[in-house]
Amino acid sequence: MSIDTETARRVAKLARIEVAEEALPALASEFNAILGFIEQLNEVDVDGVEPMTSVTPQRLTRRADVVTDGNQQAAVLKNAPDAREGFFAVPKVVE
């Protein structure tokens, strides 16, 4: 597949990128280089290769999924402009 300047103009418009008219041929050339590299990647035989999310095999540490109150009430209320009886105090807005 070959990208021409008209296609490069359309891609720039879709990406909401302003590209000067004289820069469109260079942009089309860069797109063609990228597509050429992708074609090279398509030639690689990946049969039997397991997908991976990292270059090093590692498992994330997990914690027990237990519901708690967080024990952070004092720290959260410390920055409140007005706190009473362990809650945020706000002005009354309904009459």
From TrEMBL:
Known catalytic reactions: L-glutamyl-tRNA(Gln) + L-glutamine + ATP + H2O = L-glutaminyl-tRNA(Gln) + L-glutamate + ADP + phosphate + H(+); L-aspartyl-tRNA(Asn) + L-glutamine + ATP + H2O = L-asparaginyl-tRNA(Asn) + L-glutamate + ADP + phosphate + 2 H(+)
InterPro entries noted in UniProt: Asp/Glu-ADT_sf_sub_c, GatC
Transmembrane intervals: none
EC number: 6.3.5.-
Keywords of this entry: ATP-binding, Ligase, Nucleotide-binding, Protein biosynthesis, Transferase
Gene3D superfamilies: Glu-tRNAGln amidotransferase C subunit, N-terminal domain
Signal peptide residues on this chain, from the entry's feature table: none
One GO term of the biological process aspect: glutaminyl-tRNAGln biosynthesis via transamidation
GO molecular function list: asparaginyl-tRNA synthase (glutamine-hydrolyzing) activity; ATP binding; glutaminyl-tRNA synthase (glutamine-hydrolyzing) activity; transferase activity
Domain of life of the source: Bacteria
Family matches, as HAMAP family: GatC
NCBIfam families: gatC (TIGR00135)
Function: Allows the formation of correctly charged Asn-tRNA(Asn) or Gln-tRNA(Gln) through the transamidation of misacylated Asp-tRNA(Asn) or Glu-tRNA(Gln) in organisms which lack either or both of asparaginyl-tRNA or glutaminyl-tRNA synthetases. The reaction takes place in the presence of glutamine and ATP through an activated phospho-Asp-tRNA(Asn) or phospho-Glu-tRNA(Gln).
Subunit-structure text: Heterotrimer of A, B and C subunits.
Family designation: Belongs to the GatC family.
Name of the molecule in the record: Aspartyl/glutamyl-tRNA(Asn/Gln) amidotransferase subunit C
Species of the source: Yoonia vestfoldensis SKA53
Designated gene of the protein: gatC
